[in-house]
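FAQ
Q: What does a multi-component entry look like?
A: The components come first, one per line:
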Amino acid sequence: MVGVDPGLTRCGLAVVDVEPNRRATLIDVKVIGSEPDLPLDRRLLVIADGIDAWLDQHKPDVVALERVFSQLNVSTVMGTAQASGIVIVAAARRDIPVALHTPTEVKAAVTGSGQSNKQAVGKMVAKILRLDEPPSPADAADAAALAITHGWRGAAFGSAGAAASASSPRSGTSGLTPAQRAWIAAEAKARSVKSR
Amino acid sequence: MVGVDPGLTRCGLAVVDVEPNRRATLIDVKVIGSEPDLPLDRRLLVIADGIDAWLDQHKPDVVALERVFSQLNVSTVMGTAQASGIVIVAAARRDIPVALHTPTEVKAAVTGSGQSNKQAVGKMVAKILRLDEPPSPADAADAAALAITHGWRGAAFGSAGAAASASSPRSGTSGLTPAQRAWIAAEAKARSVKSR
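Then the predicted structure of the entire assembly, as tokens:
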């Protein structure tokens, strides 16, 4: 699956293979950068062309994307939101399901705590993917973390449901094991904490 | 030229022909709507397909778009920003210049005051376009107002410069008439007022 950390200056892309036993392997990683001194339309076109090529090259079964919040990072959030819209449409045009995960969900899934910092996330991403060091820059590590998060949630709870959660909350928890329910409860608690 | 009032639930599109003497004529107007109960990726795809078809149908020389601010309308701004990113890329893919205008610039250009309300803008749009009533819904009138604003600014100051202002401030005011400089000063003042 493909994880995307959307951004206008740096858009992180990662392809991670997640096996049913949760073993995760980094297949490819890339950062699409657009020069801040280019006009906005050219910058967004760089992102659009880059994500199109990436999806055509890797043909992922799902695109996991960071959910963008308007109250965070006000100075860059508009460009990030514009880039995320472009990524979502690129996937939708290819009938690739899109799943959105909050930063807190990603931190909780990868490190066990929704309040971990970037360094801790990068360190755990490296460990999970059996790499000597985290993918660099941080946008690449974040994209890998998104793919891992989605792969693990999908593996536990069914990827169809996870993919369909692009704009709706996860459905009921019946039919899950006690461990799965406990994890959901822990994640819900993590989500209620204000994220970065 | 095409004016776009970006939005996820309603995206207003207008084609306005502006003559060198500032006479403006509405050629076509449309609102692309996406159902709020659809998944986000399907909603953005509806917008993307709609703007693609509109640009291919009308082949405008420029797309004038409302500049989205992160501090406004927090509940809907992310969808609006995502839609605007999609519109900008659709234009860039066709080598159509994109010009961004703030709501205050649009109000000032159309009504003479940067603090006018939606009703006043709609009323002046109808008057300028010689219509019995404003295009409806308001998103369509706003799209027409954006096209008028850009056409008038372009007519006064050169459309190439206006089109290139997508991500950079307008360049110097040398070579302008006193009336043009006065207008620029008035607009700069209007811009400094907090917009809606």
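Q: Is there any commentary attached?
A: Sometimes. For this entry: Chain A is about 50% helix and 15% strand.
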